[in-house]
Amino acid sequence: MNIQINNDNNAPIGQAVTFSLMKGDLVHILHPEQIVAYRGPSNGRNDRFMNMKRMYRKRKMIQSDMSGPSQFVAALPPGFAMKSIDINDGSDLLYDLRSLFYFSDGISMQTRLLSMKNIIVTHDVIKVKFSGTGQIGILTQGPVCQTELHPTEPVYIDAGSLIAYPENATLELTVYGNTLASQRMNYHWKMTGKGTVLYQAGRQNRQLEKDMENDGFIKRVLREIIPFGNIFIK
């Protein structure tokens, strides 16, 4: 299987991902409505109902099993990108099923139930652990970053930006910084342990864009509260 991602600089218009499957390849697409072009035998696509756990978690009912030889193109909406990750035996990372776009044949999933406290705060009920050998594709908002965990020195990751973390990691929902900082930030995961944590660096872009659009209002306020502000602030 070969996957080509169109990294057009015109990010606001979205991305196109081309899947080229050889004979014997099989890939499972969890967002089949995003497939916009297909070349291959008509029986190369087999849609079926998801199992109940996946239906509940993804709020969707249908997945497409695409077999080779064939080629198809999937469209990603503006603001999203896709990251392919290799899965090998022994992988212990837990992922959010909602971000899963595809997984190759040979990959199996196991669910992990979160604590009630974490469910209430994050609205996440389960995480999934992948086993076997193959590849998965996850949808992200911005580049995917990784940070090595430390057994005693915590790292704080924005809860909404977290993609995957080791199953043996210790997590605690919290905020950090002084009073003003802790009152203005989203919940973060305070994490310690061994292994690598993955997170997306783009979820906050919308807030930044909103702040920039409000620049005119901010300048008007500063002109009023700063002496001679109307002179120095243009």
Automatic annotation (TrEMBL):
- Which residues, if any, are the signal sequence? none
Which Pfam families does its entry note?
Answer: AIM24 (PF01987)
Q: What is this protein called?
A: Biogenesis AIM24
Coiled-coil ranges from the UniProt annotation = none
Taxonomic lineage is:
Bacteria, Bacillati, Bacillota, Bacilli, Bacillales
Please give the organism: Paenibacillus macquariensis
